[in-house]
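Good morning C.,

I know you're traveling, so I'll keep this short. The sequence:
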Amino acid sequence: MKMKRSEKLGMFTGLVVGVLLLLISVFMIFQTTCKVWGAEKPANATQQGIDVSSHQGKIDWEQVKNSALADYAIIRCGYGVNQTDKDDKYWDYNSSECERLGIPYGTYLYSGADTTAKAKSEAEHVVRLLQGKNLTYPIYYDMEDEKFQGGLSNKKLGEIADTFIKTLDSAGYKNVGVYANKYWFTSRL
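The tokens, ready to paste straight into the viewer:
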């Protein structure tokens, strides 16, 4: 059976696209794990940090230190209430590597709290994970989860944030802030 010219062209195009996708995939596999910052620091920036969690995988912190593109890191310690299965699986590694290499760092906990009791447990989660750590930047409470917190009133969200901050304050942590996207800060918090 003889193939038409359009069929040959279609097969050739498919082959070229397939080879290109394969090459891109191989290239991505061999790239370093730490791809969490841009190509260069903005001209008007005095410092630039990176926000990391287990989503970035195992980071090559030597590369981060030597890159001059990240002056500090804000590392997720966990998410949700105080249960060990909610610890970020790279928290200990990431924080220990920053301390070993002298990279200043802070931390954040991604909140799913919809009650003040859960906010208190989330603060206790942070306290548990900070034992023996030497933070140089603040602790942040990441409040922007539409699924768990989107239906709450602004007043309730404020009470949740206040509970988290006061629980950490009573444990001796004074440098605490709330982190959220612009919409949550301007409309919800």
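Safe travels,
E.
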